[in-house]
Amino acid sequence: MTKPTGNPEAVISRPARPASGLWILLAWSPMVSGLLGIVCFVVLFYAEENWRGKRVWERCKRDLAGQGAVMEPQAHATISIPDNLNVLKAPGMSEWFLGQMPNALVSGLSTAWRSIPQRDSGDLIEIVVVSGTTLPSSLTSDLCLDYDAPVLSVADPTTTDTDSSEAPRVIPLLVMDSVPLRYAIKNLAGQDGRKYLLDSNLLWSLGQTGPSFVRQPLRWLLDCFAGRVRAQEPCVNIRWENVTAFQALMTLLDNYNLAWIEDSTNHIGRICIKSESSTMVQLTPGARERVKQILRGISSPPVPEADTLRASQGFVLYRQDNSSPRTRRHPVRITVRANTLPDVREVESFFPRNTLPRPWGSSSLCALASGTNTFHAFANASCFCPAEDYLAQTDPCKPQLDLIRGALKRPYAIIDAGYERPVAAPPRNFVGFRIVSQALAQRAQSYLLLGQPERALEELTLIHDLAALLEVEPPSLVAAMIEGAITGLYVEVIHDGLRLGAWREPQLSALQTQLEKIHLGPLLVAGLSSERAAICRTIESASPSEFATAFASDRTPPNSWEELNRPGFCLLTFGPRGWRYQSMAASAALLQSNIACYDRVTQTLLPREVAKADSAQEALCSHASPATRLAGIATPSVTRAWEVMARNQTSVDQAFIACTLERFRLAHGEYPLALASVAPGYADRIPHGIIGTGQFHYRRSDATHFTLYSAGWNRKDEGGLASDSVPLVDRANGNWVWN
Q: Among 47, 203, 363, 465, which residue has the least CB neighbours within 10 Å?
């Protein structure tokens, strides 16, 4: 028997060595494997999106460069100049026109007219509210109205129902099932025959029952992964019985905290977010006309209309004349049939601001309850201010105004701010520009009423030069829009002087020279170009908090959760950097399409291109993906800016032509038979209309009256049919007329 050899322990089997902890974890923990897969997927997703975004942005820059656009920050950087050549380095200029802090000059000019003693106007109207079942024939009143909130209409004199010509059709049953809000508004307004304007950005800001990417991006992202993302636009699900289309529309708007504000001149409604100043009552066309008739004859204004001028701050300037006594009539009586008693604010809304006769300016009627069912309405006579008193009240500010005149003689106006940080640039004090320009315009109007046109020209010249200060480097879109508004104010005073017959040859020649230098289109283009570069730079470099602060409508500091739920903050914090570049490309392309609406060679605006750009803006806001959502937040809608610019530039050109016609009249005793008679004698050339390539049309009524007009937004010659839809622009009808 052979004996075993070697170490006996060698033949004993040993247990296998345990595998490493990592392999055991992988073998027994599929969750860890899944997590690693998700991490790899996220890394690859971010890398791919970053590459895609950078590629899209580079391609966008090449395309824009081919169209002449410059996107490099160095091209928009400002130069350094000595302080003694910079307008904004003059004493007081930075304090008055930079920053947002209140200052003594602006405060003094904004409240000057309120310190002047006013005269009383007395009661104008007595309103008595009765039951809706009362027959109007049994009532003794000058006018009987029916009020079925929020609609005010004319009552039938013999029945308890409204006038058949006035009463809208009652719909027995109205049902809407998952109808998008914009289409619900369109259908209801169309059934009532009403036109309206709706901001495309408005629907995006409205809330809904489910999670919204705008308001709850975290919940929206979770629903994205779960496949439960719903349309952003709210849908309407309603059922009404026995209502009119307009009543249904008003109720629908109220449900979404919206208001219908109607322009009395063309009856086009503007749908906006409801505010304290929103109109509570909507008058039917018949009721509005009857109210106007009543107000025209109830009381004489404090002064004759020929001696008044409307001031831009909401009051009326007038020339005092004690030789003409003021007449007064007893208040008229209006009966209102209603099932519920209206409150004071509703009664005041029965008489819209623009239904008062012209000498009352923009004042509205105030109402006070005088009994359980009666009210007294009276005009706010504080809206009247004597021209002499206004000049005396604002004369203490003349030293500061003289400092502004001296500062504007410097050759440059540059803000010391690098373009590399647009969000850190000091803001312009646009309120200061507006208040100072309004005060100067009102001083010019006062001098015109007092027969001192040379002094009025001095104030207008300062407005003209102050508006040019808004062209300070670097330019901005808001500054271009404010300059257009100030220019409109400047032209309005010129119009007032022509209506009064106050201007003489020296002032008219000087005004022509100033008007000839005003070109608002290139300024808006420059503002858009600078805005495009600033938005792209902000999207690229701003921190989430800076971006949210720059573009948030609510400037109050949010708490941590509200900060996280702001879409700009969430996307910039957690999204790939490539999304920044894709948003930059979308914003730059959209603003370039707006810039292309203006032909710099012919200096004309193309409304069709503006409509295309507006549609692109709406598509960006309504169907934006997370990759381009930052562009939807940061890119402004420019359609309104183009419309106002076109209207203001038309007014500038018409004022230039009117000055040449007035010079001709002063020299020959009558207006010319044809517009060609004033050129080249009184002007080198006659400007053309900014809409399309149309010319201005001139028609002499008699030796001292004429009509001057150009094609409106629709580019059609409608024979001088006016389209006075200020502040809105009627896109479908009417010419722009100088009266």
A: 47
